[in-house]
């Protein structure tokens, strides 16, 4: 009976995933536009002082300034949207506290030539401007890392990693690499860590309002969809298995204090390795494990899709600014051996 139940669960997952992916990614632009009119829940808190505050300045957030979107979670974490915060207050507070940020990014194989120069240049213009930032660039070709002119208080460290034969393994194994460099280096120099995919471009302020103990990002393609369309890993044999969750988070960006990012990456890596031992691979690889972790360990701050937007979705009235954009994806050429 147990074997039959497992087979039914696997078949359910196999049938569910293609249907869901088609519904989200293959629907015509006109339907995607209509999705933007689907109502979101509203924040149940009257004042930001009722939040579980990451820092004292979070009490200045105006949760009622954006009645068109959800501005807090049920566990009283803020969801950051344009119009809710005063950038000056956040910058002053973090400068006073001596906050410093490590930015990790992986540029392996053809991804280095295709994206890294633009990513780093745009980051210099928009990411945590005015705070100390150290770039940690993980690559299999250190000699090809572009020579970027860095602003004062900013530096770069290049870490050599092996190139995996499968892009999925590059994605999943980054969790161990990030955890290792936090232990050996970052924790001695930086208060916070932000981890990014390289195939993105900063286009607007990505500032200190995004800093927190544990920070997750709402996925641009899912934030207005009903939960039954979220592509969690529904294979009960995977450590990333989820029946349902709170939101669908995008692993292209995650961050927090160095302690919390280290705990997250260690947990995800452990789940990935246990799956490998059982000949299982989570549906969306490290992103599936990240969503499972964030279900069990709620983020203290959530970033709206402004912080990682895909222009192919089309116009949305709730996206008043774009702070980071998906770069064009060239999977056919970049992910081939």
**Number of helical stretches of at least 4 residues:** 8
Helix content: 25-40%
Structural class: alpha/beta
Work out the strand percent: 5-15%
Over the alpha carbons, how many angstroms does the gyration radius reach? 20 Å
Major sheet characteristics? 8 strands, mixed
Strand order of the largest sheet: 1-9-7-8-5-2-3-4
Mean pLDDT: 89
Model description:
- It contains eight helices and ten strands.
- The chain has 337 residues and is α/β, with parallel strands linked by helices.
- The strands form two sheets. It has an eight-stranded mixed beta sheet, covered by helices on one side. A two-stranded antiparallel sheet has the order 6-10.
- It starts with a helix and ends with a helix.
- Mn(2+) binds at residues 197, 199.
- The active site is at 287 (nucleophile).
- It is a single-pass type II membrane protein.
Question: TL;DR?
Answer:
This protein has 337 residues and is α/β, with parallel strands linked by helices. It has helices at residues 2-25, 29-35, 87-97, 110-126, 167-189, 258-277, 286-296, 331-334; strands spanning 78-80, 101-106, 133-139, 154-160, 192-196, 200-202, 214-217, 253-257, 301-303, 324-326.
């Amino acid at each position: 009976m147990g074997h039959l139940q497992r087979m039914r669960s696997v078949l359910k997952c196999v049938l569910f995933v293609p249907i869901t992916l088609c519904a989200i990614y293959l629907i015509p632009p006109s339907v995607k536009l209509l999705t933007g009119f689907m109502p979101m829940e509203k924040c149940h808190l009257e004042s930001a002082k009722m939040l579980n505050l990451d820092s004292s300045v979070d009490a200045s957030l105006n949760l009622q300034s954006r009645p068109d979107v959800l501005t807090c979670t049920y566990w009283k974490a803020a969801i950051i949207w344009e119009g809710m915060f005063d950038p000056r207050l956040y910058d002053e507070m973090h400068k006073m506290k001596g906050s410093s940020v490590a930015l990790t990014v992986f540029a392996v194989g053809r991804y280095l030539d295709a994206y890294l120069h633009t990513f780093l240049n745009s980051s210099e213009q928009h990411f945590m401007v005015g705070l100390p930032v150290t770039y940690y660039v993980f690559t299999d070709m250190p000699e090809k890392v572009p020579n970027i002119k860095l602003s004062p208080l900013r530096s770069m460290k290049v870490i050599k990693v092996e190139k995996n034969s499968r892009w999925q393994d590059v994605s999943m194994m980054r969790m161990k690499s990030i955890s290792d460099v936090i232990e050996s280096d970052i924790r001695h120099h930086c208060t916070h860590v932000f981890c990014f995919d390289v195939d993105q471009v900063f286009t607007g302020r990505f500032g200190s309002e995004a800093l927190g103990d544990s920070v997750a990002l709402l996925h641009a393609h899912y934030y207005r969809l009903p939960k039954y369309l979220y592509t969690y890993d529904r294979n009960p044999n995977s450590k990333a298995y989820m029946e349902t969750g709170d939101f669908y988070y995008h692993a292209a960006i995650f961050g927090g204090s160095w302690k919390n990012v280290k705990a997250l990456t260690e947990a995800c890596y452990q789940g990935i390795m246990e799956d490998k031992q059982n000949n299982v691979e989570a549906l969306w690889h490290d992103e599936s494990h990240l969503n499972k972790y964030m279900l069990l360990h709620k983020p203290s701050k959530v970033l709206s899709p402004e912080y990682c937007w895909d222009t192919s979705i089309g116009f949305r009235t709730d996206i008043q600014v774009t702070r980071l954009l998906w770069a064009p994806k060239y999977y056919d050429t970049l992910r081939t051996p």
